[in-house]
Amino acid sequence: HDFARDEHHNGYVHFRRPFDGAPLPDAPLPEGFSVRAVGGEDEWQRRVDLHRVVYHPSRVTLKAYRRLRAAPIYRPDLDLVAVAPDGAFVSYCILWYDERNRIGEYEPVGAHPDWRRQRITRAVLVEGLRRLRALGAERAIVLTASDNTPAIHLYESVGFILHAHERYYRARAQ
């Protein structure tokens, strides 16, 4: 139909992780680190700052984060951060839970560049899985760019299974 793969956009890969009774993986943290929900308003700017570093350049602001937190389906108990011994936020994710379909979606997931590949984000993901399972979720989903090899390995390390490829096409020049 006169379309060609878009070489400038590699597309996305979608993952799913069923809660089929299998135990969740272990996810020990380095000493002094913890994973918890974002606290009160005094922590929100730190959460925004982390997102802006992870997704630089990012236009997310404290005002935008306030709007996100006001969304009807937002749950503060599913907005998770990994906290370093000095109190710095080093990794995070938000989980969006659809009670009707019993699916939890990770969006976004990120780690400060200085704290990647230390299994900290893995612990954040596993805590999210634990919370989703406790809510009655039947599965979790997440997606990433198809060329984001570190994220793909991370998701697979906690039991996510490749489910679909999303590819982009453009109309050929006439």
- What does the largest sheet look like? 7 strands, mixed
Order of helices and strands: EEEHHEEEHEHEE
- Please state the average pLDDT score: 95
Which structural class matches the secondary elements? Answer: alpha+beta
Q: What spatial order of strands do you see in the largest sheet?
A: 3-4-5-6-7-2-8
Using DSSP, what is the number of strands?
9
The low-confidence parts are none
Q: What is the global morphology?
A: globular
Radius of gyration: 17 Å
Beta-strand portion reads 25-35%
Tell me the span between the first and last alpha carbons: 12 Å
Number of helices: 4
**Helix coverage percent:** 25-40%
Question: Can you walk through the features of this model?
Answer:
This protein has helices at residues 44-54, 62-69, 120-135, 149-157; strands at 3-5, 12-18, 34-37, 79-83, 89-98, 103-111, 139-145, 161-166, 169-171. The protein contains 4 helices and 9 strands. The protein is α+β, with helices and mostly antiparallel strands and 174 residues long. It has a 7-stranded mixed sheet. Strands 1-9 form a two-stranded antiparallel sheet. The two termini are 12 Å apart.
What order do the helices and strands come in, and which of them pair?
Blueprint: E1 3-5, E2 12-18, E3 34-37, H1 44-54, H2 62-69, E4 79-83, E5 89-98, E6 103-111, H3 120-135, E7 139-145, H4 149-157, E8 161-166, E9 169-171
